[in-house]
Structure formats: structure tokens, C-alpha cells
Amino acid sequence: MKLIWGIFKRDMCHATRNVIAVIVSMGLVVVPALYAWFNIAASWDPYGNTKALKVAVANTDAGYKSDLVPVRINVGETIISTLRANDQLDWQFVGSSEAIDGVKSGEYYAAIVIPKRFSADMMTLFSPDIKHAQLQYYLNEKINPIAPHITDQGATTVANTIDKTFAKTIAQVGLDVASSVLRYSKSPQMAQYMENLNGNLNTMVNTLTGASQQVTSYSQLLGSANDIVDSTNKLLKSTTSAGKQAKNALRQGKSGATSLTTAGKDVTASVNSALNQMSGALDTVSGKVNKSFDALGQDAAEASKQLKTLSEQVSEGESVYDTYTASLQHMRESVEQLPDGDEAKQPLLDVIDREITLLANAKDDTQKLAQRLDDASKQVTQDTTSAQQSRTEILGQITSAQQSITNVRDDYSANVKPKIDALASSVSTLITQTTSMINQLSGTADDLTDVTGTVGSNVSSIQSTLAAVAKKLDSSATTVKTLIAKLNSSNNGADNSDELKSLTKSNASTLSTLISAPVALHRVAIYPIANYGSAMAPFYTILSIWVGAIILCAMMKVSISDREKAHVLGLGDSLPPLAGPAGPGNASRWGLRLHHEYFGRYAIFLLLALLQGTLVCLGDMYFLGVQANHALQFLAVGWLSALVFSNIVYTLTVSFGDIGKAIAVVLLVMQVAGSGGTFPIETLPKFFQMLYPFLPFPHAIDAMHAAMAGSYGNEYLLDMVYLALFLIPSLLLGLVLRKPVIRLNNWIIRNLESTKVM
User: Fold this and answer.
1) What CA–CA distance (Å, rounded) separates 405 from 492?
2) Which of 300, 374, 592, 727 is deepest in the core (most CB within 10 A)?
């Protein structure tokens, strides 16, 4: 140990003897640290500085518009608007040709061209012929090896944004429409529409059923036509007798005309009396309504009682309409007694029917007025705030009822009465013409005999047609009834009530976002690293310590001269003549053995290597701000790496000279590629995966990662042990296997020196 310490002490004296030696020694310590710091600082946040990468974007999208979707859609414009707010890359919005030419010239790293039919192709989603919308992506891969991957990520981000935006828009439109429809389906307007539709459909069912029954009656009536046709000959032969009966009928017609005239007069009188009475009653009701509502503020109960009384009075007045209706029915029966050939009969029947309909409408308005008065009598005691609205509605109902009465009276005067008068005046003419016709009928009876045969066959055909029509009408009525049942079930059903209500209350934007991206990625960092520079710090730090070891062996001598050996042994300035040729082990007979020389000279290498490791690790933590959750462990990795690496490189140089230095450089290159410091080891070729466990770099890097972010179990200790195990082969080579290698190394040196070049 004394000899080892003596060698180390003399080396320290020589290293600090002059200023140049001190400067060089300091440089040997600082240079590896600078190497690590520059690389770590340069890669501190490369993906956060992509804003300067120029990527051209050209929009040639012509948009899309169809009859089905009348709104013009231009996805390209949406993309441009989105990218203008994106600062991940330096987006350049230019023309198509300029974008492509810029990529070729190197002005832009990449270019994205939105084709002319981009929107049209995207909208084929709603057609049978679906086309995949494509973005044209141009990339200059020779400018930089990393830039293409960054711009690729930008292009992928654009494509993903388009997909999500499109899906979200379609989903949001659909949900908005569905929500609007569902909300509207529950609105009072929709309920009223459904009620009206139900009423109209029921009316349609009744009409179809009635038409079917009528057609069936016609068919049954025609069923007896053959019997009538068979007896026609007998009927024609008895024309004279029938003529007499017709004349009697004409006399009855005269009597009916007289009855019609009388009925018309009676109805006219009852019309004027009844309608004037009802109109006056409504005027009285209008005044009492106002008085009742005026008294509301003083006594709500009294106002309610008055309104109830008015409702009952209006209801009692409905008998007037029944009286008038009975009169009109009597008139109609009188008109029906007229001969069918009278041109005034059917128009008169039509106007009487219309008058009856108007009268029914007037009665309905009166009933509604009575009901509204009754409702108001109950409402004023419960909610006085809506009294004014109830007054307005009741007065409006009164006005409507009076207008209905006026319509009945005007229609009667304008249409019914004139036609009754005209009909009465034309009865005599009709009777005279009919008498002449009957006289002529007897003369033409013989000519009609041949017609009956043809009529018989036609009647059978018409009967079968009418039966088919009646069947179709029944089928249509059944279909409409089924539709009514389904509508009622859909309107009143509650199978999906809760789901529909929740849908109408939900946020359409949130739902559409969920549909466009149903899976959200929640990143949970295990052993988080602060930034990319910190993540790369272990690799560059370990690399710089190995580089520092190579620099030490390149700048400093690993062998000890004979003069230094003599001074250490205290033999003066030179070894005795008995010593062998200069070289390792030639002073062993005086006690300076190979391991003394090995450890004695290695001591200064170790000291400088430890200073290198300490400086680079402290600079990482406190100068660059590299993350280090366990600072002492971080330093320990640097110290152990300095010890192992410097020993390996020193041993190779001591054992093989310059060839050992070359081997150290080769090991450096191999470890840069196969250590897994930049790319995962699983992504490297098979050779490096097999070599991985037998290199010191991976274990040193893994130990430093554990010191920075935390260790799983004994991970840190195991990596430190694995790293320390590399000292075993290094020491084995430097202390044991070195003896036979010395002669080989001396022979190689002599041959190299003989070349006069190496």
C-alpha cells in the first residue's frame, strides 16, 4: 500500500507542478460535463418547440350541397379555421401548387392539400356509394430525420380532428333534432294536433263505414232489380192504371205544395221569433258577465254565483235551437213529398240541410259559452289573477255565438225562404207537365219491352262491382281504426317515458362528443418524468462519463517510467543495471510489482474520473434542473459509473496500449446503439437485444432512472450491483491476465514502431 500511495503522491505533484498542468487537469474534468450538458440542454423540450416547423396547408375543397341537405357544407373551410387556432406547428396557408413546390424546395417540411371533392366524399356517408375522403400529404424526408415524424403526427392529428369533428357534428344535429321532436311531442300544441288528428280520423272511419253501408244497400237494392225488370212488361201493360195512380199522386203533390207553403210560413215566423229571442238573451248575458266580473274584486263568491246562474240561463236557451231544428225537419219532410223530377226539390233540400248544420254550430257555440261560464264560476274563487283573461274569453264566446245566430238568420233569408217560394210557384207547372208525360207513357210502353233484357244483365254486373267496392271501404275503415289505435298508444304509452325525458333534458353537445369519441384516454403517469431533457439525462450523463474515461487515457500516461519507479523505491534517478528492459514489472525484484504499478497509476485516473462524475451529476441537478427525486442516489450512480468506466478503459489501455484505446471507443459505439437509452431495447435488432445484458451502459442508465423517478422494489440496488460486477473482469484482466499479454503487447508495439508511421 505504501508503494501505491507513493506513486499516487508523485503523480499528484506532477499534475499540480505548473499552471498548464492544472489547466489541463481541470479541462479533463470539465470537458465530459460540457458534453453531457450541451446534449441535455439541446434535447430539453424538442416537441414543445415544434411551432417553428413550417407545414403548408392548401384548401381546394369546393364544398357540398344537395336537395336533401340544402345547407352548403365545406369541411375544408372548417379545417382551415381549426388550424388557424392551432399552434403546434407553423401552419402556412397557401395555394396547392405553392405548397407542393415549397416542400420540394425545402421551404416547408410538409404540406397538406385538401382535395376539391373532400366535402362531397365525406357526405357519401349518407349514400349507398360510400367513398373514403382523403387528404393529400406531401413530405420532404431528406431535410431532417426527426421532422418527418413530428409532421406526420401533425397530419395524423388533423385527420383525427376531422373525424371527431364530423362525427360530433352529425351526432349533435341528430340529437338536437331528436330532442326538439321529443320536446315538441310533449307540448300542448302537439297534444291539440293529436286530438284534432284523432277526431278527423274517427270522422273518416265513420264516413268510410257509412259509405260501405250505403254501397251495400245499393247492391241489395239492385239485387231486386231483376225481379223489377221481369215485371216491367206487366207494369207497362198496366200503364193506364198507373197513370190514374200518378194523377192521384199529382193531386197529393198539390196538397204537399200547399203544406209546404204553410210549413214555410210557420218556420219563417219561428225563425224570426226564436233567433231574435236568443240574440237578445245573449246581449243580456254579456251585460251581466261584465257586472259579475266587476263585482269580483268585492265578492268573489257572489261573482261566481252570478256566473253560475248565467251558465244555467244560457243552457236553458238551447231549447230554442231544438224548436227551430224541429221546424226545419218538418219543412224537409214536406219538400221530400214533391216529385223527384222537380228541379227545385234537391237545391231546397240542400239549403235546408245547410241551415240545420248552421243551427247546430250555433247551438254548439252556445253550449261552449255555457261551459265557459261554468268554468269561470269555479275559477274566480281559485285564481282571481286570471279573471280578466276569462272575461275576455267569455265575451269573445258570446260574440261568436251571436255571429252564429246571425249566420243562421241571414242564410235562411237569403237561401231557404226564396227557394220555398220558388218551389211553390213551380208545382202547378210540374203537375201539368207530368200529366202530359203520363199520357205519352201509355203510347210508348210497347217500345220499352225489348229494353228489359239488356237491363237485367247490366244490373247483375253492377251488383258485383258494388259488392267489391263495399269490401274495399270496409278494409279502409279497418286500416284507419288500426292507425288510430297506434297513435293513441304512441301518444299515451310510457314504455320509454323516463328515457325520452332524460334525452330531452340532456346536453346535446356532451352526448355528441361522447358519440364521436366514446373512449377517453386518461393518462396516469407511473414514475413521472418532468420533461424530455430529464428523460434523456441518464443516457447523456453516462455517455459523458465513459467519454471522460477515454479522454483521461488519451491525455495521460498509463505506464510508469523507470525513473519514477526508482524514485518511489528510493533508488535514485534510475533503476540498477540488473533491471530488465523498460516496461511493466521490471522492478519487481525490488518490491514494485505489477499490481503496485496498476493501482498506483490508476489512483489519479480514479480521482479525476470521480471529479468528472461529481461535476456532471451536480450540474445536471442544480445547473440544468434535471429531475432527481433522490439526489444522493443520483450522485452514487455517477460515482460508481466513473469508477467502473475509468477502470475498464484504464485496464484496456494498460493491457493493450493504443489498441486498448481503440477497443474502448468500439465499446462506446456499441453501447450508444444498444443500451436502450434512446429507443426501447425491444425495437432494436436481435443482435443488440442479445448483447444488451452484457454492457454496463444499460444498468447504469436504469439505476439513474430509478434514482430520478423512484425505484420498484430493489431495482436500484440490483442495477448498482450489476454495474459493479463489471469490475471483476476488468480487474481480472489488469491484474492476472495482464502478464501473458505484456509480451504480446510489447511485440505489437515494436512492430508498429518499425513502420515509422504508427
Assistant:
1) 39
2) 592
* pLDDT interval class at 607 (50, 70, 90): very high
Question: Hey, what's the cell of 589?
Answer: 525484484
Instruction: Specify if 622 maps to a domain.
Output: yes
DSSP calls for 92-122? EE--HHHHHHHHHHTSSSEEEEE-TTHHHHH
For residues 423 and 345, the answer to whether their CB atoms sit within 8 Å is: yes
Domain range for 272: 233-448
Q: Which of 675, 683, 721 is nearest to 701 (CA)?
A: 675
Report angle CA 364, 369, 370 to the nearest 5 degrees.
Answer: 95
Write down which residue in 448, 482, 514 finishes a domain: 448
Closest residue by Cα to residue 741 from 652, 677, 673, 680: 652
pLDDT digits 0-9 by tens, 516-564: 555 555 667 778 888 888 888 999 999 999 999 999 999 988 888 778 8
Residues 116 and 40 in one domain: no
Q: What is the largest CA-CA distance in the chain?
A: 183
Residue at 512 is within a domain = no
Domain contains 274: yes
Same domain, 613 and 702: yes
Phi/psi class of residue 115: alpha, beta or left (left: φ > 0; alpha: ψ in -120 to 50)?
beta
**pTM higher than the cut 0.85:** no
Same domain as 294, residue 157: no
Binned at pLDDT 50, 70 and 90, residue 618 comes out as very high
Looking at the structure, tell me whether residues 163 and 92 fall in a common domain: yes
Q: Which is nearest to 113 in space by CA: 126, 124, 102?
A: 102
Is 570 within the bounds of a domain? yes
| Spatial contact of 123 and 82, defined as CB atoms under 8 Å apart | no
Q: What letter represents residue 128's amino acid?
A: P
Asked if 73 and 145 sit in the same domain, the reply is: yes
